[in-house]
Amino acid sequence: MLSKENPENRTSIVNGGGIPPLVQLLSYPDSRIQEHAVTTLLNLSIDETNKRLISEEKPIPSIIEILKNGNLGAKENSAAALFSLSMMDENKQTIGSFNGTPPLIDLLINGTIRGKKDVITALFNLCFIEQNVSLATKAGIVAPLFQLLENKNLDMVDEALSIQLLIATHQDGRQEMGKLSFIETLVNLIRDGTPKNKEFTVAMLHRLSLHNSNLMLAAL
Asked: How many CA atoms lie within 13 A of 12 on its CB side?
């Protein structure tokens, strides 16, 4: 908790050489210690300089392992840590290469609202790399994003549409999103959504129709 609120404490931990042992604790055979370690690294990564220092210790494989096998709290803090670290382009590649996309998508389906918000932001960052768009599509990202469009109570429609715009650059993603039920949902958002929903939705339909004019006819 010392690392969460106070920038001076974060600086003291880093200057005291705290990052390497914290990364080592990610693999310690005790789930509570793993959770505390990943949470502390998440808090330290608030500072931009620390993101790079943490990344140099190569924590991503261990964070992904906790994301796969930890308790719900540990999984959600791991997702938040990946979101923070994915702000760096080289980490986007690493997270995809170590198969971090499937457990993120699983948490998007099964996590709490807080967890879903961290996951969807992490996935948005990752999908700026074409390799990760392909991996996310193969891992089944389209269906849970569709559910977020349907469930407006989660207040994540804009975030879901933002990722879908990136996925629509990939042929497999377009095929999944080209199904009639998805088009109907987009049309409903144009009619009933917020101004920002409508802006994203029009852009989505335009992108899809560039590759399949029948989709625009279906929307009309």
From this structure: 7
